[in-house]
User: Fold BLUF domain-containing protein from Methylobacterium tardum.
Amino acid sequence: MRAKRTSLVHIIYFSRLNLSSDPAKRSEQIGEIGRTAQKKNEFAVITSFLVIEGSFACQVIEGERSSVHETFDRVSADSRHRDVQISEWREIAKREFVHSFKSAQRTAGNETLFAKANLLPMLQRGTPKASAIHGLCLALQSDTMSRQGIDHLFV
Ligand SMILES: Cc1cc2nc3c(=O)[nH]c(=O)nc-3n(C[C@H](O)[C@H](O)[C@H](O)COP(=O)(O)O)c2cc1C
Assistant:
């Protein structure tokens, strides 16, 4: 029999980024966030996906309850974004994200997925649905994995 799993939760939040308007500086700042987040998340066995849409961030963070709590406390106190709002925080039966930290922004290759999710107007009104954020993160993950030819490993 399999060992009983610890209780898994996910948090879905959105926020407004306080990043540089200079594209080179901004991508350096995003890279820096990713490097720290990946190390910390690996250590805490957190899996996550961050979407950057215009000046907004949306992230799904999943893992063991206390690890997610600690991670979110740190993330929400970070001055590189503000107006951090939880859209959903609940127990989940299993993880849906594969990597400790991945982030995606609009590119020519994923434009249709961003357009379909149509998050920007919802973010501007301050009313994005958790299901829309979650759906876009999953779609972007599947897209990347199928381009890499590893999607069959995670069905
Ligand atoms: C949009 C955004 C997403 C972030 N995501 C994570 C994350 O998933 N995990 C994490 O540990 N830190 C994340 N961070 C970085 C944390 O806010 C924090 O800087 C980092 O964990 C280091 O914390 P410390 O300086 O208290 O050690 C994120 C920051 C931002 C702005």
User: Anything to note?
Assistant: The first strand starts at residue 8 and ends at 17. The mean pLDDT is 95. Helices lie at 23-44, 65-76, 111-117, 119-125, 130-148. The beta strands are 8-17, 47-53, 56-64, 81-91, 102-105.
